[in-house]
Amino acid sequence: MPGGAAPMPALDNTLRYPYDSGTKMNDSPPQKNDAITADLVQLLPELVVALYESAPHARARRSAPAERLTGRQMKAVVFLAHRGRVTMGEFADGLEIGRAAASELVARLVEKGVVRRAPDPADRRLVTVTLSAHAEGLAADVFAQWSAQIAAAFALYPDLDPDTLVAFLRTVIVHLKGRSEP
Predict the structure, then answer these.
(1) Of 73, 91, 154, which is closest to residue 128 (Cα–Cα)?
(2) Is 119 helix (H, G, I), strand (E, B) or coil?
(3) Which of 18, 35, 82, 126 is found 20 to 30 A from 139 (Cα to Cα)?
(4) What is the pLDDT of residues 28-81, one digit of tens each?
(5) CA nearest to 60, candidates 47, 73, 43
């Protein structure tokens, strides 16, 4: 080459699996874990949609003129159903959002009749957030439904270790949120 320039490397036209950049599509079939990973990647969106569609907003819509809840609003409902009354700071921290975003989220949920906002009885400088009575009932119904469905699914797989599955799902969530440790 003139001027001593190095020759250009040949282009690699090998197709690769999107979830494992080291595995070539035209090589031998992927390992068992790669196949399971591919199946899980396809199932995650279906799981999210199934959870969302079976959530309280669907029942609320049938029983009252309420709007559908967004994914973030559903996360807030689930958080409050588990935690009960919390301060705005605890609400923001629990949902891993900023204080301004938490305030806006609560305002939307108050408009929809899903949560109540009130001064803290022990410290009137603090604002607390709780589910409305109607939302508490809907959340309890949905959790009971989800629990029954999960128990039925576990019954189909008696050798599946629930503790390992829960640990695995927590780790997947942590990684999906862009963290490296649970």
Answers:
(1) 91
(2) strand
(3) 126
(4) 445 667 777 777 777 777 777 777 676 655 555 454 445 678 878 888 988 999
(5) 73
